[in-house]
Amino acid sequence: MMALGTDTGGSVRGPSSANGIVGLKTTHGLLSRDGVIPLALSFDTVGPMARSVYDVATALGVMTGVDEADASTQKSVGKFHNDYTQFLDADALKGAKIGVARVFMGYDGEVDWVFEAALQSMRDAGAEVVDVEIPSWVMDVRGRLYRAIRYREFKAQIADYLATIGPDYPKSLDDIVARSMKLPSRLENGISPNPSRWRLMLSEQKGGKLGDGEYKAVHEHGLKLIRAVLEGIMQDNGLDAIVYPTSTTRPSKIDPDPSPSSGPGGGVSPVSLANLSGFPDMIVPAGFTGMGLPVSISFLGTAFSEPRLLGLGYAFEQQTKAIRLPVHTPPLDGETISK
Q1: How far apart, in whole angstroms, are the C-alpha atoms of residue 266 and residue 166?
Q2: What pLDDT band is residue 339 in, cutting at 50, 70 and 90?
Q3: pTM (2 decimals)?
Q4: Dihedral of the CA atoms 74, 81, 88, 278 (nearest 10)?
Q5: Degrees to nearest 5, angle at CA 141 with 215 and 32
Q6: What angle do CA 10, 245, 37 make, to 5 degrees?
Q7: Separation of alpha carbons 284 and 332, rounded Å
Q8: CB-based contact 74:30 (threshold 8 Å)
Q9: DSSP per position, 24-70
Q10: What is the pLDDT of residues 205-222, one digit of tens each?
């Protein structure tokens, strides 16, 4: 019925969007990360993925609460709920004010078309839809702010995690890199080399330490600045949420092996805004490209605004009915998949 993802930089939202399902990157501190292998605890969150907004809301209410094993959950005191289905309202878009971040458009015509149709469906449901501007300096620095935290925290925090497991496992990032150098070909058990992750680990090795001035400045001031800017945009415009295509381009195939000169795919990812701010991001299917690839819309809100985002996402889902049941994994004999 549902699955969990750990989102440090999009790992709930990317899979949800590419597979045409609903996902929720939760507010930092809403759900416990106890047991999660850390990538960067300043950004790491846990979030549910499911076929419908109702299923996501049901799953979320089971998992909330303060956990002594994760100090970040103290932020949720008085702000979490045990039943989020109570906030699902098919008329939630009526009277809502939605801001559109068009800076994340213009990279794929078919994604833009689906997104424009989604905006019109919200207008038809009674929402006021207005364009908002993400400051250009935020767009320019968000990647550097993210890396300044992520690289340093992973290097330190993965060692803390590895110290808790058995002696046969590596105990530091340096150990992991050394082991990866001994895996140039696929093993009999199916484990394969991951050169792109190896290159990233080399950058993480050189990423600095938690005591560095840059880390302190970004952690203590930079992240607060991003939060304040996004809160200001929403407050100044009276917004219930900011929306954008979760992925600015259609999902890509996993089988091609691109040449080194081709570089990464096009488009600018919007997902880091929710990680840098710690804000929630609700992902709902919006439609499909001409060749049947899924396109999703993101609803970004302020901290612990999951009730409102789930309501808006549910109303959008009921208005558009863009989700489609799986074709290649149909129900087993004698079973049904409910809509």
Answers
A1: 41
A2: low
A3: 0.92
A4: 0
A5: 55
A6: 5
A7: 26
A8: no
A9: EEPPTTTB--TTPPPS-TTT-EEEEEESSHHHHHHHHHHHBS-BTTB
A10: 999 999 999 999 999 999
